[in-house]
Design brief:
The structure is a single chain. The chain is α/β, with parallel strands linked by helices and about 250 residues long. The chain is built from 6 helices and 12 strands. The strands form 3 sheets. The chain has an 8-stranded mixed beta sheet with strand order 1-4-3-2-5-10-7-11, sandwiched between helices. A hairpin with a 5-residue loop joins β8 and β9. It is globular and about 60 Å long.
Length: about 250
């Protein structure tokens, strides 16, 4: 299924900043039940917005210069396809359906085969990520390092309160939900055109392709800018907190 929602003429894209993207939207979202009983995870709405996660993602991609997106579906794909058909979208969208699980790496490769400009770089994002930061700046970072792949890095907050002590074991302070001392894969990527051929046809690229590129110093990590919003929507608690955070920004 292809949804062509733009009237812009096709023009050649020669910039190192991608104008095409893949969104992985095939997860079952078992930890988000009952919200995902009748819809795929990216179709879950953030309370108070009236728009599913995928809608926010497509709007963000379009604002960052993306003109074409390929959405890889699996679980309840027809629900997502129906929403795409009925919605006025800010970019051209194609849908591919995984009829059997291919793993994250295999899913990326399968979807990338439908990108309109295979000789150009591309973005990718997991379908359960709610974030806002400059993809253009990330693409510049990727190009400056001549990387084959670049992943965004987030520093999420620890869901528990932390206790600060001194060297003598005295408690000095209690810190509610502090930032993690570790960076994590934020689920947003910039890939060179050559990356597609390095992906497995089945399996997880984070266990195969990424370690290989890391050994070759061809994998870059882009820390999200200070203050950039990022949240993975995995549980009902994440939905509630995202809605509260969004309301706080209003």
């Amino acid at each position: 299924m292809t949804s062509d929602r733009t009237d812009e003429p096709d023009v050649p894209h020669t910039s190192h900043r991608p104008s095409q993207a893949v969104v992985l939207a095939g997860g079952q979202g078992t930890r988000l039940r009952p919200y995902t009983d009748d819809r795929p995870k990216p179709m879950v709405e953030i309370p108070g917005t009236g728009t599913p996660i995928i809608g926010h993602q497509l709007a963000w991609l379009a604002a960052e210069g993306v003109t074409d997106a390929v959405i890889s579906c699996g679980h309840l794909a027809e629900v997502l396809e129906g929403w795409l058909e009925a919605t006025e979208l800010p970019l051209r969208v194609s849908v591919v359906v995984e009829h059997e699980p291919l793993g994250r790496g295999g899913g990326l490769r399968y979807a990338a085969a439908s990108l309109p400009r295979p000789e150009e770089p591309w973005y990718a994002t997991n379908g359960d990520i709610w974030t806002r930061f400059s993809l253009r700046e990330m693409a510049d970072f990727h190009a400056e390092r001549d990387a084959t792949a670049t992943l965004a890095l987030a520093r999420p907050r620890i869901p528990w309160g932390a206790v600060e002590t001194n060297e003598f074991g005295h408690v000095l302070d209690f810190i509610e939900a502090p930032p993690s001392p570790y960076l994590i894969n934020a689920g947003v990527y910039v890939f060179s055109a050559a990356f597609t051929a390095l992906l497995p046809t089945r399996g997880d690229h984070e266990r195969t392709t990424f370690p290989r590129l890391a050994r070759e110093r061809a994998l870059a990590g882009y820390p999200l800018p200070h203050g950039a919003y990022w949240r993975a929507i995995d549980t009902a608690k994440d939905l509630t907190e995202a809605a509260r955070e969004l309301a706080g920004e209003a």
